Amino acid sequence: MKQKVLIVEDNISLSQRQKDWLEQAGYDVMTAMREPAARALIRKHRFDFILSDVRLPEGDGISLLEWLTKEKKDIPFIVTTEYGSIPDAVRAIKLGAKDYLPKPVHREHLLELAEEIFRPLATVRTKPKDLFRRTCPKILEVERYARIVAPSDMSVLILGANGTGKESVAQGIHANSGRDGKFVAVNCGALPRELAASLLFGHEKGAFTGADTAKNGYFDMAKGGTLFLDEIGTMPIDIQSMLLRVLQENTYTPIGSDRERMADVRIVAATNENLERAIKEGRFREDLYHRLAEMEIRMPSLAECADDILPLAEFFRERFSKELKKETKGFSKDAIYRLRSYRWPGNVRELQNRIKRAVLLTETPVLELPDLNADSQTDIRITEKTPDILPLKDENSEREAIANALQACNGHREQTARLLNVNSSTLYRKMKKYGIR
Fold first, then answer.
1. Which end of the chain is more exposed for a tag (fewer CB within 10 A), N or C?
2. CB atoms within 10 A of CB 408
3. Is residue 156 classed exposed, middle or buried when 0-12, 13-18 and 19+ CB atoms within 10 A define those classes?
4. Closest residue by Cα to residue 284 from 300, 295, 268, 271
């Protein structure tokens, strides 16, 4: 089922353009020009994402957001802002808006934000992102290994915490591989168990109820290119067996078919899970691990690359200052000290998000510590190491651990997942299992 998006925008041409972009990317899109019309649509339909201009001819985005909060409708809300309405964007962020987009809205920025919200099952990347060149020796070692292994057909397993840049390394391997096919990134943590085999390998017409037409899978999409299996540690054990066979024999069979196809695909996998523990607990096949890890690359945390923190912070400050047309001139001494002493559990992704919001919210050219803490569930002044959380095992301990972690993180699910050392998809699945809201 397609993700449903509501665009609230009174500029008809802009609204249509955004609608076209999102529909081309596979979303189901509806539009409204005024707040009352938006409320009526929200009452009638279930939306997964709302993109709203702050200023509307009748009502405004702020009051729409306040109404959603009052109605307890937990829908990701993004505001679009003109340069002159930055204070409105600040207010929206403080009221719970997930993010903002400055006008003019660019296609790549909108789709990147939508992708971050929905974490789609699979994404085709056409080119690597323009990234900051880091100088940390551990990162340079990662890049050296990636360059060495890229021209080969060896499977690569990238290990590391969330936000460390595992997909960027995978894209770099593909870019230097000499393969002319696509780079297809698959979010294994979001694959529905009952559809995982069909999504990966495709199916024939009539293979199962609802299979009205034949459909290619991700292996077909990535033919001649690279298939990036992110969050491989969450893959169901029966699908692991099917993947192992593909890696061993270089062939696969679509569901409902009796004809094998050649798997002309380079496999790069990544996980933030402890696979040795998963193997001992019977959640991950040891033989698959050895097939995937013909070359193993470990991504260092941002805390292990302390000398990269300030250059990265400056890179993000300049980028978002230009994007928001806000003139900033660096960080205060206190902010610099905190940037370096904070342990950054969310790694580069957390640093980027902190700086983005700081640039949006600052009222002075120099970014201060309060700007970095703004709209944050975790105070950046906390420098002590968070104690390790025991792995989730039996149901009673799982339920208690999840409830306690949610309370500690003020209900922030992504931070709760990091605290419990599980991915977000696993956390949502367990919350649903135990009836935790």
1. N
2. 15
3. buried
4. 271
Shared domain check, 130 and 112: no
* Whether residue 24 is found in the same domain as residue 166: no
Which of 298, 317, 346 is the C-terminal boundary of a domain? Answer: 298
Total number of domains in the chain: 4
What pTM, to 2 d.p., does this model score? 0.66
96 and 149 assigned to the same domain: no
Pick left, alpha or beta for residue 106 (phi over 0 → left; psi -120 to 50 → alpha; otherwise beta): beta
Quick: pLDDT tens for 261-293: 999 999 999 999 899 999 999 999 999 999 999
- 33 and 108 part of one domain: yes
Residues 225 and 342 both lie in one domain: no
Nearest-angstrom CA–CA distance, 378 and 408: 10
pLDDT at 366: 93
Q: Is residue 390 part of a domain?
A: no
- Give, rounded to a whole angstrom, the gap between the first and last alpha carbons of the chain: 23
Mean pLDDT of the region 39-53:
94
Q: Count CB atoms within 10 A of the CB of residue 425.
A: 17
- Of 81 and 84, the one with more pLDDT: 81
